[in-house]
Amino acid sequence: MRMAADTFPKLLLANAVNRGTRPAIREKDYGIWQTWTWAQVLVQVREIAAGLAAVGLKRGDKLAVVGDNRPQLYWAMAAGQCVGAIPVPVYQDAVADEMAFVIDHAETRIAVAEDQEQVDKLLVIRRKYPTLATIIFKDPRGMRHYADSGLLSLEDLQARGREFLASHPGFFEEEIGKSKGGDVSVMLYTSGTTGQPKGVMLTYDNVVVSARNAIAFDRVTADEEVLAYLPMAWVGDHMYSYAESYVAGFCLSCPESGATVLADLREIGPTFFFAPPRIYENILTSVSIRMEDAGWLKRKMYHVFMDVARRAGIRILDGKTVSLGDRFLYWLGEFLVYGPLKNMLGLSRMRLGYTAGEAIGPDIFDFYRSLGLNLKQLYGMTETSVFICMQPDGQIKPDTVGVPAPEVQINIADNGEVLVKSPGVFVTYYKNEKATAEAKTADGWVHTGDAGFFDADGHLKIIDRAKDVGRLNEGTLFAPKYIENKLKFFSYIKEAVAFGDGRDYAAAFINIDLAAVGNWAERNGLAYASYQELAAKAEVYDLLQECVEKVNRDLAADPRLAGSQIKRFLLLHKELDAADGELTRTRKVRRRFVADRYTSLIDGLYGDADHAHIETSVTFEDGRKGIVKAELAIRDAARMAPAAEPLRKAS
Asked: What predicted TM-score, i.e. pTM, was given to this entire model?
């Protein structure tokens, strides 16, 4: 009897039959791309699943998976699902203490790790939480002298799996047949912006149905090429790299390392590319830096044809009318500038691109679309299996997140909060009924926590987190995330934190982008020896003040937000860092933590002084702790007269 393809193991069986000789996943190792077909993946997953059963993994158990994007780790997730276990991907850059919370909270007994670095962290955790009985590692380098009965190589696990299958014929298919769409398929932890992370339990129906709907919406096929480089613990990677690959049947490629992603991107040439705004911003920053360093002729040609692209490129992409002259110039620009540029970036074949997680700057968004790249914005969250809003082709707006995704219902509450109901809505937060009740109503509506509204075309516009929207003392609406995003649209600004709720005016902390500002400094003959020294220079303050005042001009144009223009700002002496607790692992600012940590700086912004003293504990890359001391300058920014409210015609 044929099984309905309502789980990933069942989809794997179907793919091995229907497209068994087609590539399913590849990895670059020692400079060479290694490829496995769907039939070969099934063999690997079968052996790992049987091996996991042999070492005691049972239906309903949690299986931790930690490491960079590796075929073997994706196979481990599928293998765990084959025997009814629930995979729990863990952020690979988490320190041991952060990882320990997830391992303990999820009651994990078995973990699959990439290499020695991750094994060392898990061994530290196991001393405190001995319920973590077995640690399986993929890469044996550096592990030769590790003597621990609970350690097992993936190769040895698969050998045990082959022995187990020999004595348990039919076990693999029987176990797959026991699972159904309504069973929990994965547990993904939230970023923990406001507290400890929560384990979001998603069923196969949640993930598979949401993936199918998104695939149909964007006409994704089995012929796509996708690069898997984002954290496996992030819901975006789980949906786009894992779920959509199994549902659509396309090939997934894993880069050699984080340092080689851009080079590997150029080699693969993905047709479907998903990245948070910071990745697109970094790529554009690198392009801008290279253009500034290029010869005058190449620089002139770039600027001339980019003017043509800004004028005509997006209209051509959307199928709108463009003059013959601009069409010819755009064709010429494709030959001379756009084509070589896209090839250099590895995006020559990209027919579909998405960005999500944060707002992307309109200039950055338009840059990619003007090159003919179909970049779109997505709005979603872990609790809805990502998809809430998507942008239909031909209806792309830089300041909205699109229309409700297929089968998604959206309601705007009286306080402006966005509420969502969809096939992707999560079951529960693991061991947290109180938080579940706060996040999800009895009839299935999820509180997103975001404030937004629909525009005249039915596209959703998100302005901020609902709980963060406040007011200045004189009554002006204060939306900190909206202001921060406007600041971060400038390539010189990597991070920003705005303050103002319950105060007389808005103020901000700013992190410079070391690469962009450093390049600017070099071109202007400005010497520096460290991030702290560069951020403290008066010339850099002048540069950033221009950015702040441009934001103020934008805010002045909106009568509702004109009063929240930034009056005072400072440049932080260090980058906000997840290792110091200032950011989540998905690089979201932990606003309350930052406010508590830098109280003296906030007091300085709201006082009369032009400097503020700070002493900050920091965590270095090797784990050592230290103290950084600094005197930070505080600058006043010019604020603009607000635009007049448009006059309404008398009825």
From this structure: 0.80
